[in-house]
Every structure is written in C-alpha cells, then in structure tokens.
Amino acid sequence: MTVSIPELPLVYLSDGEQALINVLRADMLRDRWALQLRDAYFNGEQLVRDLGISIPPQLKGLHTVIGWPRVGVESLEERLDLEAFRWADGSDSSDLAEIAQANDLFDESNLAHLDALVYGREYLAVGSGDLDGDSPPLISAESPLDMTLMWDARLRMATAALRECAADTYIESGPDERMLVLYLPDQTVMCLPSESGGWEVVDRDIHQLGVVPVVRMANRQRTADRVGKSEITPEVMSITDAACRRLMGMEVAAEFFGAPQRYILGASESAFQDADGTAKSAWETYIGRVLALERDEDGNVPDVGQFAAHDPTGMTKIIDLYARIMSSQFGLPPHMLGYTTDNPASADAIRSTEAKLIKRSERRIRRFGAAWQQAMRLALWVRDGEPPEKTRRIETVWRNPATPTVAAQADATVKLVQAGILPADSDVTLEMAGLSEGQRQRVRSDRQRANGRAVLDRLAALSAVDDEVQSPEVVDGDAGLG
Q1: Which of 40, 184, 320, 456 fits 45 for a cystine, CB–CB 3.0-4.6 Å?
Q2: Residues 140-182 pLDDT 10s
C-alpha cells in the first residue's frame, strides 16, 4: 500500500504567493529612489543642480542648505495632534484607550504623520501583540521605504501587502539578515532568504480575518492616484534648488569680492618688490601700506583708488522672492520662511495668513483620522476574533489645528451654553473651550467626586430630618391649656 504524505503549506510558498512577492517587491524598489529624494530634501542633503555658469570649478564642493522643505512640512505636521479615541455613541472607551496606550500611539502618530507628509504615504500594520495572545493587539507605523500595498480601487480596500525588514528576534537568522512579511486576507506569511536564492517560509499566522491587516495613510490622494503624493512637490524642490544656488552665489561673491578691489596707476615696479628686489605676493601687496609710493621721474604721484565693493542686496531680494513663492506653495505666512518687512504684520493679519494652513490641516485630520479609525477597528477585530459592530463608529479626537486665543474660545463656549445650544456639563463644552483630553478627564473626575459628595450631603440631611420627625422634642409649659 502506498502512503501519501500531504504537503504542508508551512514550509513553502505557493505560486500565487511567490508571484505576489515578486510584484510587490518590484513596486517597492521602483518607488524607493523617489522617496529617498524627498527625504534628502527634507533633511537638507540633496545635491544642488549647478548650472555650471557662475560657480568656479574650485568651489564645486561648496554645499549650501536652505531648510524650507523641513519648515513647510513640520509646520503642517505640528498642527496634527492626535489626542484620543472614543466611541461615537458616547459609551465607555477604555478599551480603545488601552490599545492606544499599549502601542504609544499618541507619540507614534506624530512619526506616522511626518512620514506621510514627506513620502506621500505611511502604513499602519495590525497584528497580535505576542505569541500567547495575552497582550493588547499591536499597531505599528511602517515606512513606505520598507512596505508597499496592492489596492483594489473598486472595493476600496487592500488585497495584499509586503514589508521587507530586519529579521525578528524570535526567528533564528544570521546577523543583519532581511526578512519578508506578506500580508494576505486570511494569513500573514513570514519568510527568510533560502540557500537556493529564493524565500523560505518560517511562520504563518492564520488569522482568517478576511481583510488585509494593513491600512494605508495617504496624503493628497486623487481618484486616479490613491497612493498619495508628498508635500515636497517638484515646485518645492525647484525653488529650493534655486534658493540654494543664490546662497552659493553669495558665498562665491564673498570669496572674490568681499574685500574691495584696489588699483594703482602710474606706480613703478619697485613699489611691488621687497628691499632685496623680490616680488611681493598678491596678498602682501593688497594689505600693504601703499601710501608711501614714490614719485616717478617726472615728479608725479601715482593715482590710488578702489572699485565699489560687491553689494549682496540684489541676491537677497531674489531670495525674498523665492521665500514668498515657497510660502504660497506650503500655505505658510511668509515670516515663517524668514521673509520680513519693515512694517511687521499685526496679530490679526498673521492669523488671516494662516487660514490656508489651517484648512490644509483640517483636510489632513479628516484623511488621517479615517486611517487611524480603520486601524483601531482592525485591532479590536484581532483581539476579539470578530469585527466590531458597524453601527458602533470610532471617532478620533484631535487638538484644534487653529490658534485661537483662550479668551476667544471661552467666550464662544459661554455664548453657546447661555443660548441653550450646549449643556454646561457636557464633554463637548469642555472640548470647545480648548481643554485637552487629559484635562477633560480630570474635570470629569472632579465632577464625579463633587456629585458623590453632594449625594452624601443630601442623604445626611434627609437622615437628620427623619430623626427629627421620629423623635420630636417635648417642651414643658402650659401650651394647650385653656
């Protein structure tokens, strides 16, 4: 009798999985150069494209940096502060807070938002917290340099995702060995390089979720481009290069024309020689005292003068023009890019110039908030083994991206309460007044303690009244006698 041994799916990749890995890995490697270019502009490490006209070959190694891309991106990211997760129906959200705190999401979210703005996208991967399943689900932010995703535009959901990273510590591997993680709707496959040059499966997590546990946080999406675009656009890179060239031109001018050029007419050759007849160097001639020149044979004194020194005002005006153009690209007030005028803007004028930046921040909050909500639903799915009810919607709480004064916020909130639109004890009232999530929690705790004390005081008062009714005082005297 012939005994057939079934093939175990643990130790090999199927043809479909291998094809997915090849496609996704090629997609990730194809986009990596463009992503690294944006990262170089953000870090001020880009190579400025010299036109080869005004910069001499001896100064080719001179590198000037202007940090406008970093200022523009960080100015937008600094207004995207994730504060809390909560259920939209107002029920207890301690389970959401537990997952968020276990993954340190309120700090990690800043990193995810920054990468999404620089690269145009960021990925949120969801998985089980540990091998025994006792800890909360794991939500990790993954860079697009190491991860990519296959998207179904009709269903508006991911069909597969791939991450290439350093091998995990619990997997036996060599030093600095890379591993692949393939995310599928029914399982997550982890692979290491094999001796034959391919990939060997080392673990499979059969989760049977029915969806890929990866969420893409895309920036500046379009209907034909769901991947997202970076805030460091070609226009931003072009203006940055032009401003760097102008700064480099100012450096070159400082080297050649920083000290005024002098001229001497009618001097003899001995004026440029030492006492022994040796010719002086150019620097000695320049810094030497040329006022002791001798008269020539005809008794004429040599004419001494100097050319006008180089004036950098023209280049600084061009850089100011570039700053104004860059401010329009990022929606920033010009003073945030170093452009100043003799008459500083008023506080109201500065707030009006921030209107575009505030609107851009609100759009990013809406887009990024949807990604965080989806990641949190996946985390609950992984924890409970079943998806949360669709009727229960998760909300993300963000800090106000605008910069209103405390007095203005308080005044507007008081007017809404006085008009009866908001109840005075509502959490929405505290949020509109500008209190952070931590401050609102302390206010709720204080109210509960105050209500508890009020209830105890009321019960004590009622108990005292009952005692008086049951044991009335007897007063001696003639009361009631005719």
Answers
A1: 40
A2: 999 999 999 998 888 888 999 999 887 765 455 555 678 899 9
Six-digit token string for 89 = 């129906």
Q: Are 140 and 111 in contact (CB under 8 A)?
A: no
**pLDDT at residue number 482:** 37
Q: Write the DSSP assignment of 262-319 as a string of letters.
A: EEEES--GGGGB-TTSPBPPHHHHHHS-GGGPPP-TTSPPPEEEEPPPP-THHHHHHH
Whether 231 contacts 117, CB under 8 Å: yes
Q: How far is CA 237 from CA 69, 180, 234, 245, 261, in A?
A: 8, 33, 5, 12, 37
pLDDT (tens digit per residue) in 297-356: 666 767 776 766 667 777 888 888 888 899 888 888 877 887 666 566 666 666 777 888
**Parallel/antiparallel/unpaired status of strands 262-265 and 303-306:** antiparallel
CA 119 to mean position of chain CA atoms? 10
The 8 Å CB, 24+ separation contacts for 403-406 are: 403/351, 403/354, 404/434, 406/434
* Pairing state between β 138-142 and 147-152: unpaired
pTM: 0.77
Q: Are 324 and 243 in contact (CB under 8 A)?
A: no
Yes or no: say if 288 and 280 are a contact pair by the CB < 8 Å rule: yes
Region of 201 (left: φ > 0; alpha: ψ -120 to 50; beta: rest) is beta
